[in-house]
């Protein structure tokens, strides 16, 4: 093909036909609109109609949801969820408090409970030493059952407590 020569009308038509057979899009040119085939038009129509209906339906569903009051069951579920998530928790005190462990109280918790009711002991009930502070004095348990009973506790200095624990086999 020489430079500057163009395809003949016939050649162009053949090229177009070949492209269409291959499934290629026909070349679009300014000013020339290629109208879609009947099949394509049908498909477009279905797509558009389907889309329009879908949008309208969705809008109606949204409106229905917005105006609909929540059911009793739904309300109950929300209430349960709120309680579970700690929203508006009921007021707890004493034995109703979830942290209340009663007689199953731990060693540390029991000691703080004793301190709360008997104060900080400063006199050893065994040797009579007084003015003991902090780690110099401790509470010893008589029954070894760590009862939530003030009579079950003995104020002992560190050395007496050690002897006491050794005597009773408390580690
Ligand atoms: Zn002592």
Secondary structure layout plus pairing:
Layout: H1 9-22, H2 38-67, H3 72-84, H4 107-118, E1 137-141, E2 153-157, H5 158-167
Antiparallel strand pairs: 1-2
The chain binds zinc ion.
Compact description:
The protein is mainly alpha-helical and 171 residues long. It has helices spanning 9-22, 38-67, 72-84, 107-118, 158-167; strands spanning 137-141, 153-157. The chain has a domain at 103-167.
Bound compounds, please?
zinc ion
Low-confidence stretches: none
Q: Which H/E pattern describes the elements?
A: HHHHEEH
Query: What is the β-strand count?
Result: 2
Structural class: mainly alpha
Overall pLDDT: 72
- The percent of residues in helical segments reads 40-55%
Quick one: overall form?
A: elongated
Please state how the strands of the largest beta sheet are arranged side by side.
1-2
Compute the CA-based radius of gyration.
45 Å
Query: How many alpha or pi helices?
Result: 5
Straight-line N-to-C gap: 107 Å
Strand residues, percent:
5-15%
Give an overview in words:
- With 171 residues, the protein is mostly helical.
- The protein has a domain at 103-167.
- It is 46% helix and 6% strand.
- It has helices at residues 9-22, 38-67, 72-84, 107-118, 158-167, and strands at 137-141, 153-157.
- Strands 1-2 form a two-stranded antiparallel ribbon.
- The chain is elongated, with a radius of gyration of 45 Å.
- The N and C termini lie far apart (107 Å).
- The model has no long low-confidence stretch (mean pLDDT 72).
- Zinc ion (ZN) binds at residues 124, 126-127, 129, 156-157, 159-160.
- Zinc ion is lined by residues 124, 126-127, 129, 156-157, 159-160.
């Amino acid at each position: 093909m020489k430079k500057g020569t163009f395809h003949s009308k016939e050649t162009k038509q053949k090229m177009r036909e070949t492209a269409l057979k291959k499934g290629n899009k026909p070349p679009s040119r300014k000013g020339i609109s290629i109208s879609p085939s009947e099949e394509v038009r049908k498909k477009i129509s279905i797509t558009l109609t389907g889309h329009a209906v879908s949008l309208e339906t969705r809008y109606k569903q949204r409106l229905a949801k917005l105006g609909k009051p929540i059911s009793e069951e739904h309300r109950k579920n929300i209430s349960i969820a709120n309680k579970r998530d700690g929203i508006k928790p009921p007021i707890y005190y004493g034995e109703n408090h979830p942290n209340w462990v009663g007689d199953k109280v731990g060693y540390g918790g029991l000691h703080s409970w004793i301190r709360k009711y008997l104060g900080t002991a400063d006199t050893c009930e065994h040797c009579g030493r007084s003015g003991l502070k902090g780690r110099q004095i401790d509470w010893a348990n008589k029954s070894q059952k760590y009862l939530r009973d003030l009579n079950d506790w003995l104020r002992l200095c560190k050395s007496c407590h050690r002897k006491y624990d050794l005597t009773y086999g408390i580690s």
